[in-house]
Amino acid sequence: MDTTNDAERRGTLLHAAYAAADVREMERPLLDDGVPLMRMAANAVAHTAAAMLDDEDVDVEDAVVTLFAGAGDNGGDGLFAAAMLAEEGAQVNAVAVGRSLHDEGFAALVRAGGKILVLDPSAEIPGCASGFTPGEAGERLHAAVDVARRSHLVIDAMTGIGLTGALRGIPAAVAASLGVPAADGRGDLVSPLPDRPALPDREGDDGLPLVLAVDTPSGVGVDDGSLTGAYIPADATVMFGAMKPCAMLPPATFACGRLTLVDFGFDLDGVEPAAEAVDRDLAAGAIRLPRVDDAKYSRGVVGLVTGSARYPGAAVLTTRAAARTNVGMVRYLGPERAQDMVLAALPEAVLGKGHVQSWVVGSGVPDNDGDPELRDIQRETIAALLAHYSTDDEGSAAMPPVVVDAGALDLLPDHVPSQVVLTPHAGELARMLGVSTAEVACEPLRFAREAQTATGATVLLKGPATIVVGDGGHTFVAGAGPAWLGTAGAGDVLAGLTGALLAQTGTADPDPELVAETVASAAYLHGSAAAIASESEQRGWQEPELFGMRGRSRRFHTLGHPIVASDVIGAIPDALADALS
Ligand SMILES: NC(=O)C1=CN([C@@H]2O[C@H](COP(=O)(O)OP(=O)(O)OC[C@H]3O[C@@H](n4cnc5c(N)ncnc54)[C@H](O)[C@@H]3O)[C@@H](O)[C@H]2O)[C@@H](O)CC1
């Protein structure tokens, strides 16, 4: 990414996430120059820990802190940070989960008066017991978890970007006891996340301790945001150098808690991010400003084949949402009852076929429900339209963008160009790929990418933070919406809004990257409209704070109130205005 000035650098740091391997590459020249990165990292962790204790009205000198330290540099960061807290008077218990500890960090903590408990019988840590029986190892594990639960703060420095696969061995056992067990140990729960309300403060006791994660929460999929193994959910994470994908991608982003990013001064120029978060600027770029000589046709026309006799409301929601999203006209095709309802709710709608710059199909249209013989007029219309998008069809590249939602997903030709946009939720994506909804919930990026690769379409996977994967795997996250947005019809609104933004790009055979950006912008504006409608400051994804910079506090104060999908439509113009302001 280009970062020619400070504002651009800041924008990139706050909205781009980089693969662990790229982070290591960016660290190298600084380490070669002797920049004390570990001390800088530890300093930020200690400061954040003190601030968290302060929030709980606990003075550092009265605090009991438990550190879980792995054998790698992540453990080193934690040991130095814990030493700083011990020097300030905190009572620090360090739990070594590996066979060794970072030498200098260990020495610093011992000097500062920290106590060390070893869990691995084969550990070789100077001055610490080892060679104990498996029975005693189990007792030590229980004791460590017990001490942690009774601490004011737990610092999780078991693994950072050096984690390979899911946690194994002692770190896995610690995470399973203290945090959340592996996916296969969670029974038939679909979500890998703890059952906590999306509230500003830690209200209510969910049995989890207050946790500060060092660089990444231990056990999260650093590069793909997955949560398949045991992990420790954090209330706050201090991340070093640059955001890793787990900070941005669901579900791992929700295991990070509040994010603080420490700018090490990496040279970000020319390094491709693994994922980008949509911000106002990107969203503003997807909104076509009216020209003095504009007329309804030049501003974009959206055609919708949505709603059905069974779900006529979806026709109303999609058409109204599209009409509110800065287009010149919406055309509606559907059964008579739905037509009547659309006209009653939106007299501006035009019924029947005609030229369009984008299509929206499938919202509120029944799927085949396991019956391939099902006959439905909407499905037949959609199937005939989608047949033109098959890459076997010579004209497919010149077809206008189409949003394929809900009941139309099973009508998709085998392979399509990237201006075909699929908008499944986790359950629909699971059905498309023949996996379970729980699997998609634990590894949404993996399955969104699989769907993109398999079909060629741009894939928008709906969720509290929405993932968009475009041609070539280009990945965006949009998380402007509060949890109040999970309400019937919200997906219909998103489909209409997305179709309308795509109509504004205006060209057949559009640049695949532009399609992905536009679609991600639609998800952002949808969330932003919901935030406005619900008057909530809670977000599906919130940018990190930069360590040492005075910024707007990440804490949200206004919880807001419930909304219905129609409220979101009402707020779309304000969301557009907000992006453009
Ligand atoms: N490179 C640097 O100089 C800097 C690195 N920093 C820290 O160093 C971390 C990376 O350090 P490392 O490369 O040593 O790696 P980590 O410390 O993240 O992880 C390595 C440790 O995790 C264990 N481990 C790996 N996979 C596991 C699994 N599946 N189950 C259980 N244990 C597992 C390994 O046995 C090893 O003990 C960063 O995340 C960051 O915290 C910071 O100090 C800043 C500077």
From TrEMBL:
It comes from the Bacteria. Pfam families: Carb_kinase, YjeF_N. SUPFAM superfamilies: Ribokinase-like (SSF53613), YjeF N-terminal domain-like (SSF64153). Binds 1 potassium ion per subunit. GO terms for molecular function: ADP-dependent NAD(P)H-hydrate dehydratase activity; ATP binding; metal ion binding; NAD(P)HX epimerase activity. Residues 23-272 form the YjeF N-terminal domain. One of its GO terms (biological process) is nicotinamide nucleotide metabolic process. Residues 279-579 form the YjeF C-terminal domain. AMP binds at K462, G463, P464, A465, T466, G491. InterPro entries: CARKD (IPR000631), Nnr (IPR030677), Ribokinase-like (IPR029056), YjeF_N_dom (IPR004443), YjeF_N_dom_sf (IPR036652). Its EC number is 4.2.1.136. (6S)-NADPHX binds at A314, G364, H425, D492. CDD domains: YXKO-related. It is an enzyme of class 4 (lyase). Keywords: ATP-binding, Isomerase, Lyase, Metal-binding, Multifunctional enzyme, NAD, NADP, Nucleotide-binding, Potassium. HAMAP family: NADHX_dehydratase. Catalyzes the dehydration of the S-form of NAD(P)HX at the expense of ADP, which is converted to AMP. Together with NAD(P)HX epimerase, which catalyzes the epimerization of the S- and R-forms, the enzyme allows the repair of both epimers of NAD(P)HX, a damaged form of NAD(P)H that is a result of enzymatic or heat-dependent hydration. Homotetramer. Belongs to the NnrD/CARKD family. This is ADP-dependent (S)-NAD(P)H-hydrate dehydratase. It comes from Bifidobacterium platyrrhinorum.
